[in-house]
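Notebook entry, structure prediction.
Reason for the run: the old model in the group folder had no record of what sequence produced it. Starting over properly, with the input documented here first.
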Amino acid sequence: MQLIFTTVNAILHLLTNSKFLGWACDCLKEGKLNLLVEEDGEAMEDMKRVERFVMVAIWCIQEDPSLRPGMKKVVQMLEGGVQVSVPPDPSSFISTI
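New structure, fully documented this time:
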């Protein structure tokens, strides 16, 4: 569980950088998430988990608070207990971050 929160915290930190956020969203849309973690051998071996973590992170930084999942749902999504749908593209608010 600690590994999950450490990884998600790192992803959230990176996604608060608007340039990285735009790139991460592009990588997600284009199916090229390997570009985000190419230096991390363990992550490269589990790209489904990387995809899930990135989608959860994008859900968590939605501008509209009503779109953000609650902590219980975030934990369920990270653990794989709840399917994570593709989040709305945050490009409409990237410039405000």
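Summary: Residues 2-82 form one domain.
The old model has been moved to the deprecated folder.
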